[in-house]
Amino acid sequence: MNIILFGAPGSGKGTQAKELVEAFGYKQLSTGDLVRAEIATGSTTGRLIKDAVDKGSFPSDDVIISLLDGAYDASTEGYIFDGFPRTLNQAQVLERMLAQKSQKVDLIIRLEVADGVIKKRILGRYSCKECGAIYNKYFKPTKKENICDVCQSRNFDVRSDDTAEAIELRLDTYRAMTEPLLAHFEGRTKILNINGDQDPKKIFDLIKDEIKAFQETKKAV
Description:
single chain; alpha/beta; three-stranded antiparallel sheet; 9 helices; 48% helix
C-alpha cells in the first residue's frame, strides 16, 4: 500500500509517518529528511537547497525528484510519502514510478490544520542537539526548563528556516502549488480528510482504521 501524507508545513505529517512505519512496516520517504541530509553534506546542491529553504521557498522539482530517485527502492512494498509530491510535475513523476511496478497511490491522508495553529507549531518548535528529541514552547515544553527530558542535555537547536517570514512564504506556496493537487488525485485515489488539530494518537487511530479497512477489502478481492 502506498500512502501520501498531505498537508501544510507543520500539519503533523512527520509524526504520523513515524507511527505508520512502526505499526505497518512501511518505508517512509520524507523530502524534508532528504533535504536536510543533503544540506548536512555541505555539497554544492546542499548549499543551494539551504539558501532556498532559509528563504522559506522549496527546492526545485529537479532537485527534489533527484533526491527521491536516489532513495526510492522499487523492490520495497509499501511507502509513506511525506512531503512529496508538492507540485503537479512531482505527482506525475510519482505515478510513473509506481506504475513501473504495477502500483499506484492507494490513499491520500490530508491533515487539515488552521494557519494560526501551524504558525505556533513551527515558531515554537526546538530540538535537543544531543538526542534529537523535539519540543514546542507552546504545546510541549521540556518538563524542567532548558533541560531535555530524554538525555538531560541543555543544548537545543532551532531550525534556521523557522521564521515568521519563511513560514508565511511556505504557506502561500503550499496553497498555490500543493493544495490544488487534491483535484489531480480526486476520482483516482481515496482521500481521507482528517482534522489535524487534535491529539496525535486519535489521528493515528483514525488512519489505522482506514488502512485496516483497505487491507481487508484487498483480501476480499
